[in-house]
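User: Run a structure prediction on this.
Assistant: Running it now.
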Amino acid sequence: MRLQLHTPSYTGTQPPPRFNKARYCLAGAAAATPDHPGLIVYDEPGNDVPAEQWTYQQLEDSVLRIAAGLLRRGLLPGDRLMIRLTNTSLYPLTFFGALAAGIVPIPTSSQLTEQEIEFLLFDSSSAAIALDHQLPLEYVPAGVTVLDASDLNEMRQGPDRANWADTRANDPAYLIYTSGTTAKPKGVLHAHRAAWGRRPMYQGWYGMRRTDRILHAGAFNWTYTLGTGITDPWANGATSIIYTGEKRPELWPHLIEQTRATLFAAVPGLFRQVLKYAPDETGHFSNLRHALTAGEKPPSGLFENWTTRTGTNLYEALGMSEISTYVSTGPGTPRRPGAIGKPQPGRCVAILLVDSGETPLPPGEEGLIAVHRSDPGLMLGYWNRPDEEAQIYRGEWFVGGDLGRFDNEGYLTHLGRADDLMKALGYRVAPQEVEAALAEHPEVAEVACAEIHVRDDVTVIGAFIVPRDWTAPPASEAILDFSETRLAAYKRPRQVHFLRALPRTANGKVLRAALTDTEPLGLS
């Protein structure tokens, strides 16, 4: 049956008017299968006994006690709570505890520098921050309540449980910061209905069953993990498995076997590393039904090599911070070489002209990938960025900046980005953000950043710098060291090249695409 690409709107079921994301994910399983494991944490390979194992009854109890504790500390529904915790189970418990109370959590990476966190606290007007002593902040703005790990653990064992907040489906639920088209990260505000909006992934990508054991390779603080590794398994009463130990690529086949994982999720780069560095041994994948990948362009041959090695399929998905994944392959959508997959069941996806227009293009025509505004997974909007928000809607269509083309069978080929966003280690990184940090170096006159292809399937961030003194430019190592204090590891440049001038258009705009072809000073 041919897929209807241009349905008038999202055709899946819409969420009920009163809807709380945490309740949706936990209450059903806690009532139906209270003793079933919802979260298992391993902290070292080879140890058959997990470091932690949480039943759904225990998860619900801890989440509601944390919710009560946050409210006791004076936080109100709608307040923002920034989370800066290490990679432990306290992270998702705090995240879902805030949701249960109607408080808006802001998950952040432990790799962010103090300077980056300070900006996010200010930009989000956070009322509180959950702060681990291993991730200290020298400066916390006045009026921001600091909750350390011991505070949160006391709440988890507190005297009372909150009721699930009676939130509406469209009420703000959580705020995530992502690189945008300016020098600073922008907040993407999601509603509680975002959890319901993930339902098309259940069969469109995962082929999920209640009996699944889902091992996610990411850390708790990554939104990919919080979504694919936590939210969706819990909403289906399945078991989420997270490994918090040293993540050497050769360990993952043993972990898949040890945890009896039926699904395994990671970015394409990790799958490539596993295939390259892990011993070619059999028997590790006897329980695995298939694997899942998203976040960056897969290297050539990845899918075929994975299937040859493991005997299982690898299914890919395309997504963005504003909606999560919406196009994918899966058990019911076989992979087609060169294509990402098909829109997940119920999604309304179209291709529009790049410059203007709201009329979907026919198969074979290239343009901007657009998602209908009726999709419940779509964000509420950008936090305090009305100008940027106005640029991403065309009538009833959300246009996120990805280019693509449908074929006659409904498969989508992804053709890159229409803007300058770079991809680094599965993250979207705005060149403007990296440039703004490097421009603070006293010996830098001008700087521009772009992706550099170091191999066909690997790109890194390159910094192209015009030094203040051409005769004595700073050392590349000095620039890289400077970036360590201002940028998370995945945002830092890996190569530095010095130029006499940046390539520009006639009206002065930097030509990032021409940076790698520009004659260097001969120093790097």
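Residues 1-6 have pLDDT under 50 and may be disordered.
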